[in-house]
Amino acid sequence: MKNSGIYGVRRRVGDPSPALERVCDSAGLTARVGVGGQRVQNDFDQILPWGGFRRCNLGPDGRVRAYFGEPGYRSDGEGGQVMVEIPRFYQLHLEREGWEYWLVSPCRQEGFRLSPAFLDARGQPLEHIYIGAYLCAPDGRGGVVSAAGRYGRIRTDRPTWRGLCCNLGPRWGMMDAVFLCDVLQLVFTVEFATLNSQSVMTGLTDLPYSAESPLLLSEQATNRAVVAEGYARQFRPGQGIALGWELGDNRVVPHASVTGVTPLGGGRAAVSFDGPPADLEAGMLLYSSLWVNGGADGVAASSGAAFADPQGQAPILWRGIENPYGNTWEWIDGINILDLRPYVCTDPGAYSDCSITGAYRMVSYCNSPTDESPIVAWGEDPRLPFARFPTRSGEDGGPERYCGDFYWQRPGLRAVIFGGSWYNGRRAGIYCFSGWSAPEMIHVNTGARLLYR
Question: Which of 144, 187, 319, 349 has the least CB density, counted as fewest CB within 10 Å?
Fold first, then answer.
């Protein structure tokens, strides 16, 4: 595996195309994604840091118990938290002679920086950091676990999430702004040479979510919901669903997976689901919810979709991280926004939901004032180079321009969620950013992911 060199992409400053040009040692490399058990060419599999991403079971003390493929490795959480190990790397983002560059290297290079994501509490470099392979799910004992076969926890505010993640022990927390901008977005962008992540993999972003087709039949102790056939055919086997009297209340069936769709005649069809039988009444609502963890475990390539799907209905995998965008929004720690002004922190021990002073530092720019609009540009503060958030959004953007992802905002003190959920369609993606939610808000489509560093 190559452990040296400089890998990067560039674009003309102001060029609206999301496609980027490969430069330096990336020139001529190929990065493809697979479908299911398909094997594909991805030259980055043999290059650090990309080739160093690997799943493992991590104990509470941060020690790796087993790597994927080794004896003792388990995806169900019984062997430890299922995490993705990420090796240290260096980076540089700059503009020069009318070009904007994103550069990555596994070793020190002149002018390159080491992200705060790879520094411990004493400021010492870390060899590796670890991100949850799956969404945090209830562990059955009042805590959370990153494990397959479980539904991610939702309906939880950011303060509660922070407590749940930190309760695992020292150095545990939830995904933060440093990791999002300096690791996830950067490494994905350089690998695939695009700002439009959904042009690579759509993600779980277009599942049915509507209050317009209520249940047509009352049944007791049943595992099927009878709805209009046209609506039923939008659901696919394996996907997550919920049932309730209102869209998103999840009070009747909080989580289940579709097992089949059966036409009944007369314009009706039954959507069958697993789990305990439920008492259903006509007028209730059936709608999509998050996919159970492990839906993309069958992907054989380093990145890809669980099955062929051009319509945003397949779980995806990126280098061991399941559904890095889509499926459900994810809370981001270490950033607070007050009236469009971001304040960021790089000390996980000082993360809070109301601070804009002390360990939190004010970013030199304000976020875009245009709500619910495609992102066009990101700001950069030389003092806080990881803090790259949307500064311009609006009519200039769109599905085939810039990144295509959307941005939301509200005045007042706000937290950040990112990625988009199962019904955001083409508005989702790895740059999708929302400063709409207050930290204490609870959403039916927002979860969190573990981070250990």
Answer: 349
